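Just wondering, can you check both lines?
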Amino acid sequence: MVYIRIKQVKNIGYAYLVESKWNKEKHTSQQIIKQYLGPAAQINVNKIPKEYRNKTSIIKFLAKRNLDFSRSTKLNESIQENLMEKLKCYEINELIKIYHEYTKSVYTSLDFYEKILIPVLYKIGDQWENGEIDVATEHVCSNAVNTLIDLINQNNIKKISNGYEDTKSIVLCTPEGELHSIGCKIIESLLLEKGYEVYNITSALPTNSIESFLDNTNPGVVLISVTLEENINSAVRLVQEIRKSLQISVMVGGNAIKYATKSQIQLLQKYDKVYLDLDNLADIITNVKVVLSKKS
């Protein structure tokens, strides 16, 4: 049985997705925390993994708080449509307004990226691939997204009043030949919001330049994003070169990983602290935190 448990800490409720299993040896039920859902006051349907949303206990929990899944889905779809139109017209003021209105209540920046912006990016990519929009419109949308994230990041940096967290820095990069950088910008935004020091060097840099930068900055973790299938081998080579001279934790992710061959996966798995499944943004942030906590 899976249910949501609220734990009170200093009069603040924190929600956890919990699974109750029967322990045959001890003849008692055992509660296993599946996922932390955040402050109870900020609970929304999007925070609950899809595979558990239709469970009776979860539906009852949502009903008590007047959270309707279908209504939430329709709301997200409406916001996605509005965001897409504003991106195509490069209406930056309207875009930042959509972001602020979405995140001013129970929804977070992570919700905005996962439930609104990223689905829209996939839709724009599909429209371009199917010839429904031209390349100029696709570029306008990409540039608008970059500007939107930059504005969000400026706001996040202003919120940091106590400086960066007392840990090593984080470097975001792409392998040689990879030109897609929006994924890294989104991760950068979420890490900045958490107070981390982030270096985003996602540009067309050769491997030796990336190595030199890493040697000079000595970060705690490197995140490598690879979007295109043809750049997987380049990502493998980048990890191999980093490992030759530097003892830095490496995390690899991106849309291309699901197209990697068995041999490519095996090459990546030769190196410790290389993570392949980073589709969930919350998992990325959690993994980064875990790696850095071991170094502080």
